[in-house]
Amino acid sequence: MDAASIEEINKVRRAMGMKPLPVPGATDAPRGPSPDKDQDIASTLETREAAAYDNFRKLREAEEAKKRREEKAAAVKKARDKAQRFATLEGRGLADLDDEDDLDAKSWLKTQKKRQKKIEAVRKLDEEKAAADAAAQHTADNLAGVKVAHDMASFLDGNEQILTLKDTGVLENEEEGDELENLSLREQEKLQERLDLKKKKPLYDPNDIDETAEHVILSKYDEEIDGKKRKVFTLEGAGISTELADILDAPVQRRKRQAAGIEVLEDAPPQNPDYLDASEVKVKKPKKKKSKTTRQRRADDEDALFAGDLGVTGDDQEMDVDSGAVIYTKKKKVFDDNLLDDEDLQASLAMQRKEALKKRKKTRPEDIARQLREEGSQSLEPEFLEGDKGMVIDEISGFVDALNPERLEERKAAKAKAVTEMQDESSDDEEMADADTERESVDRDRTPHADISTGVEEEKLVGQGMAATLGLLKDRHLIEDTNGSELNEKFRQKQKFLAELHRRMTLFDEEARHQRERDRASGRLDKLSIREREEISRQQNTMREQHQSRVMDQLFREGYRPNVELRYVDDDGRSLDAKEAFKDLSHKFHGKGSGKGKTDKRLKRLAEEKRRMAQSMLDASQNVGMSTAASHQGKKRKEAGVRLA
Amino acid sequence: MIVVTVNDRLGTKAQIPAFASDLVKHFKIMVAMKVGREPHEILLKRQGERPFKDQLTLADYGVSNGVQLDLEVDTGD
Questions:
Q1: Keyword Nucleus: yes or no (chain A) (predicted)?
Q2: Neighboring chain B residues of A5 at a CB cutoff of 8 Å
């Protein structure tokens, strides 16, 4: 770069307002750094390095200044401390004389009264405080009149329960007063309620008859109308007076008021119970030869199982000869047991209960509650209360009584028939035959199967007809129970519509023919030329068609209900449901089926279905349906046999 | 002061004295004066890099003494 060219450039630079380049010949060093400094001070590495030294120096100075300041402050503090240490204490010291103490005896006596009063006041204050403390302590008396929002029966378990004040607004039920409740118990009650709701009890339960309650019409809606009946009892001082009705779920016969203490919630002394304790009962193992005693049992059991047993009852003398005296005695014993008929049992139970009641005349509520609960659990027994021994006949027992005599007669007849059949020729039971002639004649033409049901329905066969076939398929769940009536209705509608359509069509045809014939007969057309005749007939045709179409339209609008049903059938001819059909169509559309695993699964399922269709429900030879468990049991016990029910 | 070489790889090569703190815009005027082309038609770049922007200085692009810049025709886009 020569100086001339630089000069030239500098000219341009100056014209543009830029700083000129240094010319190598001329020495303008002092002009160089000064504009550089104020133009951009920290833009280059060199300037920044130069600045670093200044910064460092500034920092050092600041540190030094700080140090000096601290030193000064420390010196000031030191001086102040020193000054304080040697300052004299002011005020009265312990050793200084009190001005009041140097009173004479006279003035001390004068102030004595004032002092006394002060001491008295302090004592009174203390007493008041103590009294307040005593008042704050709670006793059972404080709980008098407080309600407990629980069934009393829930406290009978004897566990310690902690009751807390119910969470309500302060002014919400001021007149009713506070209520206590146990949170866990409340939870339990709620749970119970929810479970009860889930049970889906039938609205009318014929077994749930309460003889004691006053009969209320449609009592099941009482809760909805009057709101829920809450179970509440009230605590009273040392004892509780409670509505005992709350203890039971159902209303009790009389609502007695009885007093009882809270502290007697422990177990009452055991009364002699109506039933033996489970621990005391010893169950005898039944002997193998029990089959011989079937006769007596059948006498009071309702279900005579085998038709063939009639023969056994008929000729049991011979059987007894075979088996000897042992069986005879056993039979007698069984008979004795059966002497305890229902009535005897009821009577004895009633006696026991009466005694128990007498003992409990002055009982506490929880005992009564327990007793009532027990009785509630033995729901269907007639109750003997207040000493009268009469049997209470309710609707159910009446119904059962009405049923029983018939059954008994029937059984007698069957027995008689068996006997007479056995000893046809003998004449010694003629009066028996006389008595039962009619019945016997009826019985004769019945098959033995008909009298006594075996409890097993015979399997229906396809050969028995259409209904039997349908029944068979339904039993095996091979066909679904469709809503037949609806289908039938639809079918009828459709047929009706078709018939109507057909009728109208024929009517139209008929009419058209008639008109044509009339025209021909009238001879009106004879005068016209062929072309005119055609014209007229065409007109008539169009008019007729118009009319016809209008009528048809009306008919279709009224009566035509198309029944659209999409059916999908796979390659094997099985009908598919929507999901399967979608899958099938999708596979066909994409040209790609399921993988091997899925296909195998499906084939397996189909095979299983086919097998299930083919096999019999009651076939004991295979492990099918109901017979599996039984056959397993049989194998375990090494018993041979066929299960019938 | 630095001396920058501007080369358009077509036979034109010029050496231009400047300060590193000069703006590219002003440097382009110097180049225009040397190569005889309008300043707005000049595009400067390092080899294989993006073109210089007018409002930055040569120092920002790290242009120091003896650096060679490529000269191209700026079409305006």
A1: yes
A2: 17
